[in-house]
């Protein structure tokens, strides 16, 4: 029993799927790279730390 050769439709679909997959992988790599750069530069602050820092400053001004 011989296998049938793949149809032209399957070849085109494979090429399109490969292109979409590579584009998605490139997008994920860019987002990951930007995240790594932002964290290593020290620009990242958790929302809780930013809130407590501003709250501390406001409390100090109110008491003086």
Automatic annotation (TrEMBL):
Keyword Transmembrane: yes
Transmembrane segments: 20-39
Superkingdom, taxonomy of origin: Bacteria
Low complexity composition bias: residue spans: 49-58
KW Transmembrane (keyword) present: yes
UniProt region (Disordered), positions on chain: 45-64
Keywords: Membrane, Transmembrane, Transmembrane helix
Native organism: Roseivivax marinus
Protein name: Cytochrome C oxidase assembly protein
């Amino acid at each position: 029993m011989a296998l049938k050769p793949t149809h032209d439709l399957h070849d085109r679909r494979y090429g399109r799927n490969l292109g979409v997959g590579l584009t998605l992988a490139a997008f994920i790599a860019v987002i990951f790279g930007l995240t790594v750069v932002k964290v290593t530069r020290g620009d990242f602050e958790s929302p809780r730390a930013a809130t407590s820092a501003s709250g501390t400053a406001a409390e100090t001004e109110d008491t003086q």
